[in-house]
Amino acid sequence: MTFRPDGGPDAGPHDAAREDDAPGDTPAPAAHDGATDGGGAANDARAQDADAADDAAADALGAIVGDQPVVEVDAHGARFTLLGTAHVSRSSAEVVTALARSGRFDAVAIELDPGRFAAMTDADRWAKMDLFRVFREGKAGMVAANLALGAFQQRLADQLGIEPGAEMKAAIDGARDAGLALQLVDRDIGVTLRRVYANVPWWQRLTILAGLAASVLSREEISEEEIEHLKEGDMLEATFTEFAERSERLYLPLITERDHYIAARLEIEAAALPRTEHRPNVLVVLGAGHLQGVAETLRQPPRESPDERIAALSQVPRGRRWSKIIPWLIVAVVLVGFALGFARSPSLGLSLLADWVVINGGLAAVGALIALAHPITIVATALAAPLTSLNPLVGAGFVAAGVELWLRKPNVGDFATLRQDVTSVRGWWRNRVARTFLVFLFATLGSAIGTYLAGFRIFGRLLG
Predict the structure, then answer these.
(1) Which residue in 68, 331, 369, 396 is a FRET match for 441, CA 20 to 30 A apart?
(2) What is the pLDDT of residues 325-343, one digit of tens each?
(3) In a 3-state reduction of DSSP, which class is residue 163?
(4) Where are the domains of the chain?
């Protein structure tokens, strides 16, 4: 997605005319081929002038970037100047500002998706969020994960004295000040996290979730080793650094796929830029961890169109069929247990039904209680859980969160302090927005545990 200097989106035509050079080929100036038409002296002079101009341009670029890693790639009818930045480096932000205002570039591309761009530029984004819709559409877990990532970044800001992603903000401001098109070329973070989740085994998912929670709630300062890893350049990878280094399954969707996605987006955006006598030059600001991967991908002749690659890398993996069948099998087993109990004797059937209500509803209510939900929310959760557990389409957590939102609607102050509050354990319970997510998560977990325990209890009594 491209944003015009006035802030509006401008997708641009994907089928704009491109130059004939193959991706990855860096065409030399025509004068380098030497004189073959009788004008040797003139051509030699032009060649020397072109070489001198290239050398001067390279020297000027080097003077601006200093020790920041940079790679220039000529491909897809454009020149891409890839700047590898550190998300926690003040010097990276300063270099980005200088480059954006240097007059060398026709557009600025940044390693952000529209969602993260909105979060960075719209201070009221959280306040505009429809929480009830989030829960209804099953996005609560994803939003909670985003809050956790934001909390990790806020801890970095508090410790290092610089907001993570300052170089991205510098690129946004620099593009606006210079009147350049701003291109958002990273994959949606929700898609990335879902593909990460689908690509690792279930036991590693639990480990990742536990590690993420620990990194968010820990009050220890971030180690020098973690900071150095951040300086290598990818915020998402840094958040999962312990796991990414040990797991190719995690590294693939987190880094490699995004390298290919960014390269494809750059190709699409380059095709939409106006054509002049000079090929457009695009400043690409991305974490240093993506620098070589994106450069190599841009140089490779593509086997598919960029739109096809984008579509393939944007697919959200479907859950395995058995994961959808199991909840209904549990419902069927529990109902069979009730039927067998009533068939033996009405008193046994009623006793099994009471076990189900007490265990399932009780544990769901305990989950809501742990989240410090409103007393009415706790009662509503206890009453709803035994019924929702027999209908996999509606969860106890959804009911609990809905009642909590009705009773304790978050105010403007809760949204304003949300990012800071979620950096501490107490803040998650103090802030009404964050606490609603806790109510949802703990009530859901309590009901799930209650479903299995009550099921074992019912068949234990039938078989005993």
Answers:
(1) 331
(2) 777 888 888 888 889 889 8
(3) coil
(4) 2-17+60-313, 321-463
